[in-house]
Amino acid sequence: MINLSSIGHVLLRVADEEASKRFYRDVLGFRIAEQDPEHGGVFMTLGDGFHTIDVMQHPAPQDAPRPQRGQLGLGHIAFKVASYSALREAYAHLLKSGVAIQRAADHVCQRSIYFADPDGNGLEIYYEMPRALALFPNGRGDEDEVLALSSADEPLPQWLVEDWPGPAAMAKVERLRGQAVAPTGD
After folding, report:
1. What ranges make up the beta strands (E) of 36-95?
2. From 8, 14, 69, 127, which residue has the greatest number of CB atoms within 10 Å?
């Protein structure tokens, strides 16, 4: 068996390398580790390795199909934040930057916001409750809830203003832990 330690990076072929570079740098906070004008490509990092996201100019973007929801291949790339307040700040920053938030969800052990990059690639930012894997050793079931959205000129939705995970979320955790969730896999 191969002993993988983590996902190293994701390479995205993009319609406009400069626009993608600005989006990942200026909106999401990536730092440019290297740009290779001779061979193409911008290697961007979140600071824990040389590169996390690589963007490379597609040779014929006008002829390339855009990502479509439900197609085979990449569904989305998820970025984890270290605190619930960081999720709140990310939501507000995306709206302020003119990024359309497509949906938000409470996945029991995490809360997520979903949006797209300039090429339509699905992205997610989420906060996972501490010790989620230990809390759900047999899975978390399928009790996702859709969360309300707001626009840039409206107050943040209530779910982002509250402390999370609060007593209601932890009561749900305890209820689900008491239920046997069938493990998946081999």
Report:
1. 42-45, 53-57, 77-80
2. 14
Q: In sequence order, what are the residues at sequence separation of 6 or more whose Cβ sits closer than 8 angstroms to the Cβ of residue 13?
A: 56, 57, 58, 64
Q: Domain 75-179 falls in which CATH fold?
A: 3.30.720
Amino acid identity at 171: A
Model-level pTM greater than 0.85?
Answer: yes
Structure tokens at 49: 């390795």
Helix (H, G, I), strand (E, B) or coil at 92: helix
Q: Which CATH class is domain 7-60?
A: alpha beta
| Digit-coded pLDDT (tens) for 85-144 | 999 999 999 999 999 999 999 999 999 999 999 999 999 999 999 999 888 888 887 789
Taking the domains of the chain in order of start, what are their residue ranges?
A: 7-60, 75-179
- pLDDT digit string, tens, across residues 58-67: 999 999 998 8
CA dist., res. 151 & res. 96, Å (int): 9
Q: What is the DSSP letter of 132?
A: H
